[in-house]
Structure formats: C-alpha cells, structure tokens
Specification:
six-stranded antiparallel beta barrel, six-stranded mixed beta sheet, 12 strands, elongated
C-alpha cells in the first residue's frame, strides 16, 4: 500500500446485501460519503481496486457497499482488509496538519537535548495525539503532540523539532 493513505479497516459484514462495517482510521468520517474508488487489501499487499456503490454513517462506524459484493458471505470475506486511497485522492489537510504515515520515521530533535530518536507511532488519547519516539537502547519516549511541545514539523526534511516540558525526559531516563 505504498504511496497510499489508509482510511479504514473492515471489521465485518452488515446485513444480507453485501454491506461491510468499517472502523474509520481518519479524523474525517464524512470523507467516506464522497468515496468513489478505493483499494482493499491486507497489510503488506497492494490491494485491489473497488468501486464504492454506497456509504453511510452508523454510530461511529461506516457502512460501505462495493460493486460486485452483493451478499453477506462476499462481504464477510473482506473482514480485516484495510481501505486505502491514492495520496492524490486523500482529503486535503489544513496547514500544520499531517497524515500519521508522513510522521513515522521523522527524526525528533529537542532544542536542549539534541536528537532524541525516530517517530515509530502516533496514537490518539482522546484529548490529543501522542508521539512514540523510538530510542536506541532506551525505553520509548512518549511526547504529547501539542503546540507547546512540538513547534516545527518538517516531513520534507525528515525532522520534527520539540521543546519537552520540564521533567518529561527525566521520567524516561
């Protein structure tokens, strides 16, 4: 799925007419309503192109129907597949917003401490996102993705610049 943005994961079949239930992996759940074409595949494969026949929201998840998937058994075979779109078909992000896939691998540099490590994951806690920084021979460092900590994110240069709150670094040492 290189060059693509993963926007959801199929978690099961819904009903008897081929709909699938999708766990959205995007901040913008409504983006599925305009989805016309996507790729379905397991992690690590390129996936296959599917045309979307219908989309609707359902209590925090999304129900999708694909062309050629007309019954529950066919829909159930798609369980566990990731839904991705080409980067040019991805939702346009506002300034200073990033796709998580573009943050993974960035070097994290603190003003006072220097290079801390490389971003290995980003996850949401409800209040904000947390950056997981992989460090050589040390415990991973968790940094809140807040403007008070992260003042510069430069995916094109492979760098994120931070100012850690007082005492945060010492917790991990």
């Amino acid at each position: 799925m290189d060059g693509r943005i993963v926007i959801g994961k199929i978690i099961g079949a819904h009903g008897v007419r081929g709909e699938v239930k999708v766990y959205p992996l995007t901040d913008n759940v409504r983006r599925f309503n305009k989805l016309e074409r996507c790729y379905l595949g397991k992690e690590g494969d390129n996936g296959s192109v599917y045309n979307v026949v219908s989309a609707r929201n359902d209590r925090g998840s999304v129900l999708l129907r694909f062309d050629g998937v007309d019954d529950r058994d066919s829909a159930d075979l798609l369980r566990g597949h990731l839904i991705s779109v080409d980067r040019e078909d991805a939702v346009k992000l506002p300034r200073d917003r990033f796709f998580i896939v573009d943050l993974i691998g960035l070097r994290v540099i603190d003003d006072g401490l220097g290079e801390l490590g490389v971003i290995s994951d980003v996850f949401e806690t409800g209040a904000n996102h947390i950056i997981t920084v992989k460090r050589k021979g040390k415990k991973d460092l968790l940094i809140p993705f807040l403007k008070s900590c992260v003042y510069s994110t430069e995916p094109d240069n492979g760098v994120m610049r931070v100012r850690l709150p007082e005492g945060l670094y010492e917790i991990y040492e």
